[in-house]
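Changelog excerpt

This revision adds worked examples to the README so contributors can see how folded entries look when concatenated. The first example is reproduced verbatim below.
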Amino acid sequence: MIRAVLLSLALAAPAAAQEQVNAAPGAVLRGLDKVSGAVSDLDLRNGERGGLGRLTITLRECRYPAGDPAGNAYAYLDIVEEGRQEPVFSGWMVASAPALNPLDHARYDVWVLRCKTS
């Protein structure tokens, strides 16, 4: 059973890897302060920084499937916490699967909602 699932995923991977994507000028991210329960949305352009408590979030790039701007967005983010030199997160986040490559922080969660197409 597990082998059949792995085989089907392996066969589907090349098709997904060849999917055409468009670059967007920005993205909408959502942040959660797990202590206070406060939720906030960040509307960022590529290269722009936004803040969430002690975090500074830089959007490097946002992409989405060609012909489907409401589709599965993914964004490259750099997230730095005050007082630390190394980023607490640097990489791609996928809107439909935020747990795939999550921010691992004790107080804050950040995820991608969608790319901005205009």
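The second example, added in the same revision:
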Amino acid sequence: MARPRTPKAKAEVTGQAAVRRKKFEGRNEPEVNDELGNAPDWITDTEKNKAREAWETLRKEIPWLNSSHRMLVATAANILGRMIAGQEVGVQAMNLFRQCLGQMGATPADASKAGAVGKNGESEDPADEFFQ
């Protein structure tokens, strides 16, 4: 199975767009100018589910999300909110949450595919020293 295509917005945030300019220059993607924004009114915090808090966590930790991702974020926020509230979350819900994160490009594997920058501001690829 082919690797999922890295969204241009994610590539810009992680620096991959600068490294692989030609790959992303000609890419035509839907232009969404609206940010992810605050959680919809129907997402509420309760004793058993801290979905609004989870929404804010996802919004801050995945900066390339925009308004076209709202339904996917709502699904992930619902599951994460249950975890934050200390509720039991089944295997199926955890798997769905993992899939949501993968689709949003928020897993460590996705970050490494996008060429995320390490703590010291440099690439973490051990082969870099041989190809510089």
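Reviewer comment on example two: The mean pLDDT is 82. Residues 44-116 form one domain.
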